Amino acid sequence: MKMRKVLFLISLLISFSCTQTEDNYFPSYRVNLELDLTFEDKALNEQMAYKTYIAGQTSGLAASELTGFGGVLVYHGLTGIAAYDLACPYEQKRSIRIEVDSTKLYAICPECGSTFNIWEGTGTHISGPATRGLKIYSTIQTGNKIIVTN
Fold first, then answer.
1. What burial letters (b/e) apply to 88-123, b meaning 16+ CB within 10 Å?
2. Which CATH number fits the domain that encloses residue 77?
3. CB 79 within 8 A of CB 47
4. For a tag site, which of 71, 76, 87, 117 has the least CB within 10 Å?
5. How many Cβ atoms sit within 10 Å of the Cβ of residue 137?
6. Span 77-126, pLDDT tens digits
7. Which domain holds residue 44?
């Protein structure tokens, strides 16, 4: 009987210790961007074009526009426009941001060297110490506007 109680307690502890999910990259910060593809964001109409949006650093952002944890990378890849948090999922710091490489197919963390696939719209991890891909935000296109949210 005592052995059953011990086994029950051990199984209970194990089940509660595995509650963290892969989606818990870093603290959740709201994202709300409205991009205009006819004016200041029109470069995003071209494939392999990208733009970063960082609160307090990107000119033209309205006070109501929110840019997530490390900022937002909006990229026009193979499958259309995708949006990712700029913070590296391995480093998990707002100030360490991924950068698009010279081929414009991948994003690389300048600190840890992790590489992510942005061309296919997935943000999947390719190499380096990171164990997961980039945090992806929702993009909705209505006419010449793109709304980025989480």
1. bbbbeebebbbebeeebbbbbbeeeebbbbbbebbb
2. 2.102.10.10
3. no
4. 117
5. 21
6. 999 999 999 999 999 999 999 999 999 999 999 999 999 999 999 999 99
7. 22-149
